[in-house]
Amino acid sequence: MEKKCIEEADFSKTGYSYTLSLIAGKYKPVILYCLMEYEPVRFNALRRYLQNVSDKTLSQNLKELETDELICRTVYPQIPPRVEYSLTPRGKSLVAVLDKLCDWGNENRR
What is the pTM (predicted TM-score) of this model? Predict the structure, then answer.
């Protein structure tokens, strides 16, 4: 096996770096996990699930996940307005990764 040289490495060009750039943060993984388990989910249900998140922070995280095409936002034309969030096919492709994180946590919890 050929030894790799760290001096020539560029972490920013790895798949690991790209994946982390999409799901990193305090709330994004939790939002994705929530949608994986309970989709579709409304904004207020997400806020209650996350407990101490502000509306602004939750909105910002949802917009970023939507921009990255991991979730979709569906607005129903009714009064009062109803908005639901769910995983896109791209977001659903992360389920296996999230499941592995969950498995590791369950196996290594102290």
Answer: 0.85
Q: What are the angstrom distances between the C-alpha of 56 and each of 43, 93, 105?
A: 12, 27, 29
- Domain of residue 55 covers 15-103
- CATH code of residue 29: 1.10.10.10
Q: Which residues on neighbouring strands pair with residue 84, listed in sequence order?
A: 42, 74
Helix axis angle for 15-23 and 28-38, nearest 10°, is 80
pLDDT of residue 42: 95
- The DSSP code sequence of 13-68 is GSHHHHHHHHH-SSSHHHHHHHHHHH-SEEHHHHHHHHSS--HHHHHHHHHHHHHT
**Residues whose CB falls within 8 Å of the CB of residue 58, separated by 6 or more in sequence, listed in order:** 27, 31, 43, 46, 47, 50
